[in-house]
């Protein structure tokens, strides 16, 4: 559906996009995640042909997109772009959703057949006659998305669709996007700086940092197996421990983490300088050495317990700092508190090994 090859772009002397390569399949919901200022909105504007990149080539539906000419307008008509700050007209909700169809000179009956189901899908039916300028931010965003979907775009671009919205409105927008995707199978590219949102909605995600696509792939793989420390830190990996591969037998390696040895699945050779990424949800805590299949059991001391969110975050000193996630029930049952000795266990498959640049 969409292919970008070596897309680069500048604002003045500042390079905002660097050699972006990306393919998005027809019928895919692709999440573009990255911190504020990473270049996500600029990339959407280039895809929507609002800007011409300084370098690189874009293909839409298999055809190369020309830098100029009427063909660009024809392609733009096959897309819809919903901005981070929704735009609504001084008219009813119904008329706002219908405006693109009227511009296309659709019949009244055709407009009704399109808009009425969208009012149901977006939860706006009760507001159909209300002036869109009087709506809340979340309601206005739903109107903007419904208006975009009404014209049946082949590619729908959503730029931070829940930015600055309250949790209830955010959940409503997420549910609406998921429902639209299920019903219409529209190809969607959505930007977000909310990692959890990208993980919930997108089948694949790309991580954009400082104008570079540092990793792209299935959402779960990007979060559980980041390619480098930069991605690991952005997706919230908390346990990033430097070490050296001490020995290896087949795919099973022994990694020396500053004097503490662990086993992990890795293809790095002996002597390789690496980071061990240990997901907090993979760490088990026990008062006695566990009898589970976990290959790693380390003796440690609890240095802190954070119960601000559930599951609780428990910090353990195992010769290196280690964070574990523990349910409230387990926390109370074991009576975990700072200063208490504890065993921390995790499987070799719960450790992801990445290269540590020398």
Show the helix and strand layout:
Elements lengths: L1 E10 L2 E11 L4 E5 L6 H8 L7 E6 L2 E2 L5 H7 L2 E4 L10 H11 L4 H14 L15 H14 L4 E5 L7 H18 L2 E6 L2 H7 L2 E6 L2 E7 H6 L4 H6 L4 E11 L2 E6 L2 E6 L7 E6 L5 E3 L9 E11 L5 E6 L3 E6 L1 H7 L6 E6 L4 E5 L3
Parallel strand pairs: 3-8, 3-9, 6-7, 7-8
Antiparallel strand pairs: 1-2, 1-4, 4-5, 9-10, 11-12, 11-14, 12-13, 14-20, 15-19, 16-17, 16-19, 17-18
Salient structural properties:
358 residues; alpha+beta; 5-stranded antiparallel beta sheet; 10 helices; 27% helix
Would you summarize the structure shown here?
The protein has 358 residues and is an alpha+beta fold. 27% of the residues lie in helices and 36% in strands. The chain has helices at residues 40-47, 70-76, 93-103, 108-121, 137-150, 167-184, 195-201, 219-224, 229-234, 328-334; strands at residues 2-11, 14-24, 29-33, 55-60, 63-64, 79-82, 155-159, 187-192, 204-209, 212-218, 239-249, 252-257, 260-265, 273-278, 284-286, 296-306, 312-317, 321-326, 341-346, 351-355.
